Sequence to fold (246 residues):
Amino acid sequence: MSAAEKHDVFQAIADPTRRKVLQLLAEGDLPISEITSHFSMSRTAIAKHLHILSEAELVSGRKVGREKRFRLQPEPLAELKQWLSFYDRFWDNKLSILKHVIEKSGENGLKVIDKEKDTNEPS
Amino acid sequence: MSAAEKHDVFQAIADPTRRKVLQLLAEGDLPISEITSHFSMSRTAIAKHLHILSEAELVSGRKVGREKRFRLQPEPLAELKQWLSFYDRFWDNKLSILKHVIEKSGENGLKVIDKEKDTNEPS
DNA sequence: TTGACATGAAACCAAAAGGTTTTATATAAT
DNA sequence: ATTATATAAAACCTTTTGGTTTCATGTCAA
Fold:
């Protein structure tokens, strides 16, 4: 892991596993082991991802009994949103945006229709 | 660099150098050497960053004479925007957003006021 | 009190990231 | 024709990333 420097939001969301963790926590607080059960990697690996997310302040964990429950903290995404807004004026038309959104959705086969069984990233 | 897998938008913008390159190109098309002049690293390093940005389709380069001019292609940011929009509903109030935006601006000393001399990221 | 559970922490590892230097090639200018 | 410019590509290096395994610790339950 990184020596002294804390991870920022941009780095934190760069990893697909971490994005999926965020998505999981969006549905409610969860302890590490339960988060881990949604992945095919070790609990230790997930714990490290949570640490990185925690450095970026995208999640917070509080100890509750013998488990540590993590909670989504979306506020730092504001920085990302602001960064993005700078580039808004470089779209000459709305169609090019829509085009890319649709193309990316297509790669997932538009699976987001069934929300109950959806384990993918937020569309 | 990565072997076969192409870099996606999330990875592409994770690096601060690449974000600064995007910002530069927002002001207009530039050849590699001119982009390089804004950094304290080798032209080769910048070329690699441009390659990653190119994989993410955030920039495109066309050869013109002996130079290769790069252009900003903001469309893939739509995916990021869409991803972000999923988390909109997790802010219970607008103040928490504003708080974080202000705090992050503060870290740069609110330098974005003078737009001409601004060499920082789009705040 | 004795396990079982949930986590923490350390040591280790392979691969990727982010740089460098060197060498080669195409184009422009004199 | 020669030289300077702009890039490309390869080899190499160090640090970071993303994972593992192992061992230690705290807490709940029987």
Observations:
- Residues 1-3, 15, 17, 41-42, 44-45, 48-49, 52, 65-67 of chain B lie near DNA strand C (CB under 10 Å from a C1').
- The mean pLDDT of chain B is 83.
- The radius of gyration of chain B is 16 Å.
- Residues 94-107 of chain B form the longest helix (14 residues).
